[in-house]
Design brief:
By secondary structure, this protein is mostly helical. Helix content is about 80%, strand content about 0%.
Length: about 60
């Protein structure tokens, strides 16, 4: 099962793509791209805040 971080990452990436594609076909959807980018940033920040890199290294060592 996908975790919440992965779901936010995919959802944010999808919104970013929509924000770039829809204006090309005539729709006013630039705000979707900005919202998707913000969601990606929040997802990445939440991931690093909940599991610092030092914890991941400690788990890898055993």
């Amino acid at each position: 099962m996908l975790g919440p971080f992965v779901l936010r990452l995919f959802f944010g990436a999808g919104l970013v793509l929509l924000g770039f594609i829809l204006p090309m076909i005539g729709s006013e959807a630039e705000h979707l791209g900005a919202g998707g980018f913000a969601l990606l940033v929040v997802g990445l920040a939440g991931r690093s805040a909940t599991r610092p890199f030092s914890d991941e290294r400690a788990e890898a060592r055993g």
